[in-house]
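Running this now, will post back.
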Amino acid sequence: MAKRILQGIFWIGIYLLITLAPLLILISGPRPPGRELWRDLSVALGYCGFAMVGLQFVLTARFKVIKAPYGSDIVYYFHRQISLVAFALIASHPFILFIFNLEYLKLLNLVTAPWAARFGVTALISLIALISLSIWRKKFRIEYDHWRIWHGILAIGVMALALAHIELRGYYLNTPGKQIFWGVYSILWIGVLAWVRVIKPFILLRKAYLVEKVISERGNAWTVVLRPDNFKGWSFQPGQFAWLTAWDSPFQDHEHPFSFSSSAAISSQLAFTIKDLGDFTAKIKNLSQGQRVYVDGPYGSFSIDRHPHSHEFVFIAGGIGITPIMSMLRTLADRGDKRPLTLIYANKTIETATFLEEIEELPLKLNIKIVHVLEFPPEGWNGEKGFVNGDILKRYLPVARIRNEFEVFICGPGPMMDTVEKALIQIGIPLGDIHSERFDLV
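Update: finished.
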């Protein structure tokens, strides 16, 4: 735990250093003559925002060493939120110029303005389009693969146009040191882009998986079992996830994230259990035996293996959110783990409970208490009804509220997770012992 905290602090420091580096470079050395303070301020804010945009490529490049201290869901959440901060900083650059000198408004005319201004304005327009498409993708039902393609095009366009704008303005490239800095910065950005778009897909291409079988599950879900194609495969922590590419080359950028449902104790095969929710997931059942697919992973911090000190585990799942939890339960069973476990599993009906039969047999292998919560229970049902709430949690959670005594893992629909997290805090579960897998990565 202490090691992860130190790693987290280290990467935060690196992020701040890279973000502020352009500002430090700007104020070092001789200033161009006749430059007002407000103009320098606007440039400084623009530089910091530009540095943040460049770091967005690093945040989404899936460098495991960077994501390890936080988990992918936290990094992607930060990626989404910090993009708004970056936009505000970049937009403040021209806004401050317009406030202090209305003459700068003429630079918005892409026909008559100098090329430096054209590149800058076009970069800002592209950034607005990029953020708008991301915020309203679901509202306007923009298909994921199409959005992702345009997201990548616009992001690269913003960076390229902004670099061209900086180069052509030239006011703050007046020393060899500053020129070297921006040259190195550009090379690093191009290097990250090459890793994401060329090098990593090539590696995945050489380490493909083959479909072994596709199994129909309750709840309109399908389990895809994979085996490595001429390599030994790789290990993962139970509860983690990976990006799956099927029917396409990894260069096509048509990948989708899914949790492992298989046991981490078996490295000779991988399994994903995927609910049919339309688009890509609706085609999963059509995968054929021997078909080649590509897996990029593992990722995520939602795992019992990150908490070996815990004396007990509590799992709370809703619907297909059982998938990563099933990976952890299967792993615990294969390891012969005897620690006390509690599984609270919420579904609309008992018939839609994925893995129902296997879950009912878990007490033969594990020291586990199983609680089904049904929104629409059958006639004569004596179990829990409705939704998971504080009263249900009080009845089944361990009485002890000692920090690190037991860990709680939650995965399911967003509203359910919000409710459960609030209820857990209200009944005295320490915040650090609550772990959620929201899986909202895009």
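The mean pLDDT is 89. More later if anyone needs it.
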